[in-house]
Amino acid sequence: MGKKMIFLLIGLVLTASLAACQPDNPPADNPPVQHRDDTDWKWKLLGFKNSSVDKVQVISDGRAFALSEGKLYFQEEGKWKETHPGVDISTFYPLEKDGKTTIIAGGDNGKVYLYPVEGDSWNEARFQAVPEPIDIITVSLSTGEIYVGQSTKDGGGLWRSTGDGTDWKELTDITVRGIAVHPEDPEIIYIVDKLTYFSTDGGKNWTKVETGANYGVLIHPQYPDTAYLAYAQGMVSVSHDGTVVSQQQFYLPGGMTRLEFSPVSLNEWALGIWDYPSGVGGLYYTFNGGGHWLEVEEEMKDTRILDLCFSKDGKTLYIGTAGRGLWALNIEELKKDSKITRYSAME
Amino acid sequence: MKKTIIILIIATIACAGFITALRFFNEAGEVLSGTRFNWYESKTQNEIENGNKFAQERLSKKYHVFVNGIFVDIGYDWDGIIYVPIRTISDSLNWIVNWVPDLGMIQLVKDNQEAFVDIVNFFGKGYVPLDRLENLLSLDNVQIHGGNIEIHKGSGIKQSIDIRKLPRFSFYINGMKMTDNAVGYQGEKLVPSRIFALSFGKVFKYDAIEGHSYINDSRIDAVFIGGSAYSTLDQLKEAVNTEGTSFQFREFTPDTQPLRPVIDKGPEEKVVALTFDDYIGDKVYPLLDVLDECNVKASFFIIGNSIEQNAGVLEELTKRGHQAANHTWDHYNNHTLTDDEIRAQLISTRLFTEKYGGKSALFFRPPGGYYNDNMVRIAQNVGLQTVLWSLNSTDADPQNDAKHIRRVVTQWVHPGAIVTMHTGRDATIEALPGIVENLRDRGYRFVTISEMVKLKGGD
User: Fold this and answer.
1) What are phi and psi for residue B405, nearest 5 degrees?
2) For residues A234 and A228, is the Cβ–Cβ distance under 8 A?
3) What is the ipTM score, two decimals?
4) A65, CA 20 to 30 Å: which among A152, B20, B30, B291?
5) In this complex, do B116 and A214 lie within 8 Å of one another by their Cβ atoms?
6) Contact assignment for A231 to B105 by CB distance below 8 Å
7) DSSP string, A127-165
8) pLDDT tens-digit profile of B320-361?
């Protein structure tokens, strides 16, 4: 009798209490924020705590660039440095060339501005679109050419610069919200807005892709034989002759706000989902090409994702949010996590 | 030491008792009738209540959308982005609007222009951000002021007569109040053309470019009052077959009638009402056969726009003794509609149910359980009593199979349960025989909603 029996009884009571309190559907587990040391962390709030981050980009040395409320910020000696060319910025792309980084920024006024990170001044490019916000800027990975797209009610188009932003040529007056350039063959270009078009001759001629999927377009840097066209609930894959190869629906509770591929795997995607009428959603992640989706709750629960960007090694996901700042998620830690809800893609 | 041991033994016994009671509650909901407590029933009520509270909050920042001066629909501010209904606005600017189900997108077509648009779907209505629509339709001007969004395109802006300067009337169709916004103008009584058309299940279109109104492609004469098209009854009868229908204008008087109670449960007797919501179609026939085999009469809450094309189904349903009640014309969330639009949704469904089914049960179930006191009063104005449910069978989720549905219903049934199920679900049909057998074995009998209301002491 004695202590042994008492411990046994305590164990019995605790077991019974736990069993009695177990509900049919246990509520979602929300562990506390996990800030660990520099080598073993899962979430990091990088800044902009109560602000929105519309766009985030990361360059080869790991420095992040963020667009928040019309102003550009970049990391310098561990701190955020603010800069803007005197007008609100609507989008940007950090161009890395010859060991130097230049920010190519689109203004709310339809102009393009250049900012060498090593310098400290903005230069206006000899470029003018409709005096409305520039929608997208991207760069060809094979040539470093800069592409600018715009879509407004008064028109828009696609422009290309072959000279680091100093000279510009209009490729088409089709309005553009999304651009993807083949990472190895710069002649293959996709543009999306009201419809989706592709060119196989560097933008001289454009052919319509027979799909309505026009949310955005992605070409994986390591597996570039297919273009992926997103729509609110899924994705369509297209070969470079314009043939729709497959369609995949995600069956997630809401519409897509952002989709990004891991640069090191064609099967790893990060996805922002938001249901506007109900005001709920968050971050989803797949390790098997959309076969199963993991609802990454914790810091992203019911958070509207505005932009996603992987680090070059695919180990860190940078997440721009509406009103909750800029976060980094350690993908290696995510893989270990079992406290995630799984959704199955239904065939 | 002895004292501690005794305390621990008592605690153990108490826990064991609690576990047993919990199991008992979980496995046999009806045992709890004496305590008037059923966890699932309470959960169901909370879900409906919280859903309504949440919807009203999300829809509280609303904008009335006018195209060239004429009201077309309502938009909302969600998370700082203004969303507007794409179909009504595009249609008024003469874009053909096609739904592409594979992609969940809208295709817009006009002349040689084409665009695909991602939408946010809210109870069957598609919404897009206002600035996206502005680009897509190349709108000339969009102004937001007060609670209004004014969209201008072309030169056809309509000037409206101020409704506040005109005498107001209430207008009734077959004794059902259609609107309190009928007016007297230049010696004639006029009714809102759009609401009249919707009340007869017709398509109303306002061509904002030409400035003309149409009912099912027939142009109607109209004057514009308070941002809406108004016509005389004679003008409207030219576009709508109103044979066998009576109309009445009454002096506008505030409605002070007490509200009839919302029925969410029957009496504390071992009776159960099986109810089936949504569209009718061919899949209702096997459901009717199973109900016959089980000798159960059920209540159907039917979406009105599925009636005319499935008139034979409705006829068969009522012939076999089931009740046909009202689930609105389009199954929209009622919180997104104006009062007159809700009335039109109910009137059209009731008119079609009576036309093709011979009679309708005078009950209304709000889609998704989205309702408030105002909607209960509106339903009452149309002669309907509002009915919810106390036991959600969960068959609306396509992932739930027959076994799951049967388990939920048999586990959580309670005296006076109103079970909500849905038409067009194979799993529901498969689950029914097991549910009926199980409940009958436990002493339950099956009734319609009308019978349940009578048992409860209602009309």
Assistant:
1) -60, -45
2) no
3) 0.82
4) A152
5) yes
6) yes
7) ----SS---EEEE-TTT--EEEEEEETTEEEEEEESSTT
8) 999 999 999 999 999 999 999 999 999 999 999 999 988 899
